[in-house]
Design brief:
Strand content: 5-15%
Oligomer: single chain
Mean pLDDT: 96
Strand order of the largest sheet: 1-2-3
Distance between the termini: 31 Å
Bound molecules: adenosine-5'-diphosphate, tryptophan
Number of helices: 14
Length: 332
C-alpha cells in the first residue's frame, strides 16, 4: 500500500515561477511514489479575498495551472475544498479538541496582532475568525484524508504540527487511533527562487514572473530584471546575479556552464544575459502556457475534472467523519 501525500493550494493569485519550482514541481514529483490528494483551498482564500470575481478567477486559474503543469487527475485525487462538506463537519469536531492557546501561538495570527501593536491599533483589528481558526480548517483538510505526509513550504510546518497535536488529542481522549497523525515533508533542497528585484519571488513583493505570462509579457518582465551597473567589458560573478540563478532553473548543465564562463570572461552585457534567459524560460514554459490556455478555454471540462475528483474524495472523507462520530458518541 502506498502512503498518502496531501497538500492544499491556496488560490490567492496568479501562479508564478517561484510557486512552480517551490511547490508544484516537487508535489508532482512526490505524486509518483505516493497516493496523492491535492486540492484547491478556496475557503482558506476566502479569509483574505472578499471580491467574488477575483476569487472565482483565482480558483479556476490555479486549478488549470496545476493541470497544465502536469498533474494527472486520473492518478492524483484533485478537488476543491469547498466541494467536500465533510471538511466543515470535521472542522467542528476538531474545534472541541483545539485549545484557544494553541491558536494564539499560530504565526499568521501572531504576526497580525504584532502588526496592529506596531501601528497602535486594537490587537485584533482586521483579524477575522477565519484567520484565527485557520489551522483548524487546515488540520481538517489534512486529517480528513488519512494523510501520511504533507508537502509544504517552511512557513506551513507549524500548521502541520498543530494538526498533529489536534489528532493526538482526539486519539488520546478516545484511547484509540480514530485519526491518522500526519507528518510535514519540507523540501529542504528546494531553492528560494529570486524575483525580478533579487528578493524572494512573491506576490506580496510584486516581483514575480507569472508562470503563464504570454511570450511578449514574459520577455518584457525578464528585461526588467534589476542588475548592477557593471559595464559590458567587466567580468561578472554568475552566482551573484539573479539572471543566472533563474537561468539555472531552466537551462541544461552545458548551457549553465557555458553562460557562467561568459559571465566570468567579461565582454557580455546584462542585455545579452537576459536574452539568453528569456530563450530558455520560454522554451520550457511555452508548452505549459499552451496547455493552460486550452484548459482555460473549456471551463466545463475543467469543472468536470474537479467533480470527478470530488467523487473519489468524498467516500474517504465520509469514512473519517463517521469514525469520529462513532468514537465521540454522536453516531446515528
Ligand atoms: P507568495 O509568496 O507569492 O504569496 P505563496 O505563499 O502563495 O506565494 O506560496 C505558495 C507555494 O509556493 C508555497 O509552497 C511556497 O513555499 C512556494 N513558493 C512561493 N514563492 C516561492 C519562491 N520564491 N521560491 C520557492 N518557493 C516559493
Ligand atoms: N495553508 C496552506 C498555504 O497557505 C494551504 C493549505 C490549506 C494546506 N490546507 C492545507 C496545505 C492542507 C497543506 C495541507 O499554503
Amino acid at each position: 500500500m502506498k502512503k498518502i501525500a496531501l497538500t492544499g493550494i491556496k488560490p490567492t493569485g496568479t501562479l508564478h515561477i517561484g510557486n512552480y519550482f517551490g511547490a508544484i514541481k516537487p508535489a508532482l514529483e512526490l505524486a509518483k511514489d505516493y497516493d496523492a490528494r491535492y486540492f484547491i483551498a478556496d475557503y482558506h482564500a476566502l479569509n483574505t479575498i472578499k471580491d467574488p470575481k477575483e476569487l472565482a478567477v483565482n480558483i479556476r486559474q490555479v486549478a488549470a495551472g496545476w493541470l497544465a503543469a502536469g498533474l494527472d487527475p486520473e492518478k492524483v485525487i484533485f478537488y476543491r475544498q469547498s466541494s467536500i462538506p465533510e471538511t466543515f463537519e470535521l472542522t467542528t469536531q476538531l474545534m472541541a479538541f483545539t485549545s484557544k492557546g494553541l491558536m494564539n501561538r499560530a504565526h499568521a495570527y501572531k504576526a497580525a496582532v504584532q502588526d496592529n501593536a506596531e501601528k497602535g491599533d486594537d490587537p485584533d483589528a482586521g483579524v477575522n475568525m477565519g484567520l484565527f481558526t485557520y489551522p483548524v480548517l487546515m488540520a481538517a483538510d489534512i486529517i480528513l484524508f488519512d494523510s501520511d505526509v504533507v508537502p509544504v513550504g517552511k512557513d506551513q510546518v507549524q500548521h502541520v504540527e498543530m494538526a498533529q497535536d489536534i489528532a493526538q488529542a482526539v486519539n488520546f481522549n478516545y484511547k484509540q487511533e480514530v485519526l491518522k497523525v500526519p507528518q510535514a515533508a519540507v523540501q529542504e533542497s528546494v531553492a528560494v527562487v529570486p524575483g525580478l528585484d533579487g528578493r524572494k519571488m512573491s506576490k506580496s513583493y510584486g516581483n514575480t514572473i507569472p508562470l503563464f505570462a504570454p511570450e511578449k509579457e514574459l520577455r518584457k518582465l525578464i528585461m526588467r530584471i534589476v542588475t548592477n551597473s557593471q559595464g559590458v567589458e567587466e567580468p561578472k560573478d554568475p552566482e551573484a546575479s539573479q539572471i543566472y540563478l533563474l537561468y539555472k532553473l531552466f537551462a541544461t548543465a552545458e548551457e549553465q556552464a557555458s553562460l557562467a564562463a561568459r559571465y566570468r570572461a567579461g565582454g557580455m552585457g546584462w542585455g545579452t544575459a537576459k536574452e539568453e534567459l528569456f530563450r530558455v524560460v520560454n522554451r520550457e514554459l511555452s508548452p505549459l502556457r499552451e496547455r493552460f490556455e486550452a484548459i482555460m478555454a473549456d471551463p466545463a471540462a475543467l469543472d468536470a475534472t474537479l467533480e470527478r475528483g470530488v467523487e473519489k474524495a468524498r467516500p474517504i472523507a465520509a469514512a473519517t467523519v463517521r469514525r469520529f462520530r462513532k468514537a465521540a458518541g454522536i453516531d446515528r
